[in-house]
UniProtKB/TrEMBL annotation:
SUPFAM superfamilies hit by this protein: Cysteine proteinases
Residue stretches making up the Peptidase C1A papain C-terminal domain: 148-363
Regions that span the bilayer: none
Protein family according to the UniProt entry: Belongs to the peptidase C1 family.
Domain Cathepsin propeptide inhibitor: 48-105
GO term, biological process aspect, one: proteolysis
InterPro entries: Papain-like_cys_pep_sf, Pept_asp_AS, Pept_his_AS, Peptidase_C1A, Peptidase_C1A_C, Peptidase_C1A_papain-like, Prot_inhib_I29
GO molecular function: cysteine-type peptidase activity
Signal peptide: 1-30
Keyword terms of this UniProt record: Disulfide bond, Hydrolase, Protease, Signal, Thiol protease
PANTHER family cross-referenced by the UniProt entry: CYSTEINE PROTEASE FAMILY C1-RELATED (PTHR12411)
Name this polypeptide is given: Peptidase C1A papain C-terminal domain-containing protein
C-alpha cells in the first residue's frame, strides 16, 4: 500500500463529508441530510476533525476540505496498515503532513538536485545486508581502516543546532544542510555553536536555485568565495527568495576553506567521516517517510536522490539490534524523533535510500 495518491472520492464519503460540513453549522442533534452513514466513515471523519483541530488547519473552500479529508483517509489507512504489518523496525503516525498527497509533499518539502557527481543508480534497497564496497580515495585526510568509535552522536557533544523547518513554500533543504554542516564544523573548530543563515544562501548563492532546489556542493563553493556565512539572527529565514542583502551577507560568523567528497557506495568511508564531523548526504524520500514517527527506518526506497539531510552520528538500536545513522532533517521538530530520523546502516551498495551516493563535508 502506498501513501495517498489523489483519486475520485467514494460517493458515500463525499455525501458524508458534505453532510457533516453542513451539519457543523446546525444545532447539536439536528441533521442536514437523510443519508444513512457508515460507522467507519463517521469514525474517519471524527479522526480527521480531531487532526484538523490539533494542527489548526483550515481550507479555502468546502471542495478543498472534501479533497483533504479523502487524502487524510487514504494516508491514515496506509499508516495503520504499515504499523500492523510486522517485521519492520520503525513506526508511522499521522502528523502535520497527513492531508498531503505524496506528490504534493515531495514537491514542497524536498529541494536537492544532483551535482556533477550525482548518481544514476535507481535500484531498490530494503533491509538486506551486503558487503561494503569501494575504497577511500577522495579524501587523503582519513581512511576507513582507521579505528572509529562504535557509536557517535554529535548532538551529545553540543555540536548540532536543533532541527529547523524549511516550510512548504521553499524547496531549500540544500541550504539547511549546508548551514548545518558548517555550524557543526565551526563548533568543533572554535568551540562556538552558532545558528547560521539559510536565508543568506537562498537569496545570495548564485550557483543554486534559491527556493527552486540546489546542491550543497555548489553551496560550499559559494560560501568559500563569499568568505563565510552570517548568523540566522542577522539574516532570518523567510521561506521565499528575495534580493540578496549584500551588507548582511558580508558579515561572517563562520567560514570554511574547502570541502571534501567521500567515495560513493562506501558506508565504511561514511562512518569514518561522520566520526570526525557531521556530513551532508542526499536521499530518496522512501515509502512512508512523510509520516515517520520513530525507530530505525528500513525502507523500502530506491536511489532517486531528491532530498538533502545531515548525518550527525550513528549507533545500534538496543531493541531491534539494527545499526543506524542519525539523520538531522529540515521538516521541523514535530516530525520524526524531534526532527531526526534513524536510518538503517550497513545495508551495502548505495546505502539506505542512496545515502552513500553523494557525501560531502566542509573543511577549515
Amino acid at each position: 500500500m502506498q501513501p495517498f495518491v489523489a483519486r475520485p472520492s467514494p460517493p458515500a464519503l463525499l455525501a458524508l463529508c458534505g453532510a457533516l460540513l453542513a451539519a457543523s453549522l446546525l444545532p447539536a442533534g439536528a441533521s442536514s441530510s437523510g443519508e444513512r452513514l457508515e460507522v467507519g466513515d463517521m469514525v474517519m471523519m471524527d479522526r480527521f476533525r480531531a487532526w484538523r483541530a490539533e494542527h489548526n488547519r483550515s481550507y479555502a473552500s468546502a471542495e478543498e476540505a472534501l479533497q483533504r479529508v479523502e487524502g487524510d483517509r487514504q494516508n491514515a489507512e496506509f499508516i495503520d496498515a504499515t504499523n500492523l504489518r510486522g517485521g519492520i523496525t520503525y513506526q508511522l503516525a499521522e502528523n502535520e503532513f497527513a492531508d498531503l498527497t505524496q506528490e504534493e509533499f515531495l514537491a514542497t518539502y524536498t529541494g536537492y538536485y544532483a551535482d556533477d557527481f550525482g548518481a544514476n543508480d535507481h535500484s531498490v534497497i530494503t533491509t538486506s545486508a551486503g558487503d561494503i564496497e569501494g575504497a577511500v580515495d577522495a579524501d587523503p585526510g582519513f581512511s576507513c581502516s582507521m579505528d572509529v568509535p562504535a557509536s557517535v552522536d554529535w548532538r551529545a557533544q553540543g555540536a548540532v543546532v536543533p532541527p529547523k523547518s524549511q516550510s512548504s513554500t521553499c524547496s531549500s533543504c540544500w541550504a539547511f544542510v549546508t548551514a548545518a554542516t558548517i555550524e557543526s564544523l565551526n563548533k568543533i573548530k572554535t568551540g562556538k555553536l552558532v545558528s547560521l543563515s539559510e536565508q543568506q544562501l537562498v537569496d545570495c548563492d548564485s550557483y543554486d536555485g534559491g527556493c527552486n532546489m540546489g546542491s550543497y556542493g555548489r553551496a560550499y563553493k559559494w560560501v568559500i568565495e563569499n568568505g563565510g556565512l552570517t548568523t540566522e539572527a542577522d539574516y532570518p529565514y523567510t521561506a521565499r527568495r528575495g534580493p540578496c542583502n549584500r551588507a548582511k551577507s558580508a558579515h561572517h560568523a563562520a567560514k570554511i576553506t574547502g570541502f571534501q567528497k567521500v567515495p560513493p557506495r562506501n558506508e565504511a568511508a561514511l562512518q569514518a567521516a561522520v566520526a570526525r564531523q557531521p556530513v551532508a548526504v542526499a536521499i530518496e524520500v522512501g515509502s512512508g517517510m512523510q509520516f515517520y514517527k520513530g525507530g530505525v527506518y528500513s525502507g523500502p526506497c530506491g536511489t532517486r536522490l531528491a532530498h538533502a539531510v545531515t548525518v550527525v552520528g550513528y549507533g545500534a538500536d538496543a531493541a531491534s539490534g539494527a545499526n543506524y545513522w542519525i539523520i538531522k532533517n529540515s521538516w521541523g521538530q514535530s516530525w520524526g524523533e524531534r526532527g531526526y530520523i534513524r536510518m538503517r546502516r550497513d545495508v551495502g551498495g548505495p546505502g539506505m535510500c542512496g545515502l552513500t551516493l553523494d557525501v560531502a563535508y566542509p573543511t577549515l
